Amino acid sequence: MIEHRRVLGLIPARGGSKGLPGKNILTVGGRPLLQWSIDAARQSRYIDRLVLSSDDPAIMRIAASAGCEVPFRRDDELASDEASSIDVVVDALNRLPGYDIVVLLQPTSPLRTVADIDGAIEQLVSSRAPACVTICEAETHPYWIFRLDDSRRLARFAEPPGDMPLRRQDLPTAWSLNGAVYVAECSWFLKNQTFLSSATVGYPMPADRSLDIDTAEDFERVLRIAENARNVP
Question: In the chain, pLDDT over 90 holds for what percent of residues?
Fold first, then answer.
C-alpha cells in the first residue's frame, strides 16, 4: 500500500512460446526464470497482493511454490499468440476488484530489482500521473534510424532540427521501453486499456538491468550474467 492506495502485482506467464519454448520456467542461476520476478516483487514495500495469470499447470505450480498467489487459471483465448498483455491485465482486474494501482511484471525481465519496482510505483504517485513505465537509454538514437523507399533512397524516421549536430555525444538522450515494470491506476487503465499515453511518466533504469528475454540469444546472455554474479566473491 502507498498513500492508502492498494497495490496489485500481476505476473503474466502463459505456457506457449514459439521463440523460446518453455522460457518462463527455464532455469537461470538455480531458479526458474519466473521466480526471479516473484522474488523481487515479494520484497516490495508497496505491493499488497502478488498474483499469477497463467494457463499452464506447470507454471502455476512453480509460482505457488515460490510464494505467488494463483487465484485463477487464465482462459485459453487469453493465452494465444494473438492475446495481448493489455487483455490479460483487464481480465485480472475484473477478476480481482478493489485495487487502486496495478503493477505488471513480465517474467522475461529477470534482472529488474525491487528498487526498480518500488521506484516506478513511487514515480507514479509522486507525479500524480495515471501510468508509469520503466525505460532505458536507447541503444540506437532515432536520428540515426532510416527507412528505404522503393528506389533504395534513405529517409530518416525522425528528423533532427536543421542546426542540430549529429555527433553522438551532442544528441539529446533517447529512451526506449524496456518492458520491466508497468504501473497504472486501475480505474484509468480499465477505461483506457493502455499503459502509454501523453500523461504516462517514465522511470529510467540502467541498461544492465533492462534485458528483456525474447530469443535464445537473450536467454544465453542472461545465463552468463547470472553465472558471473554467482562467481563474484
Answer: 75
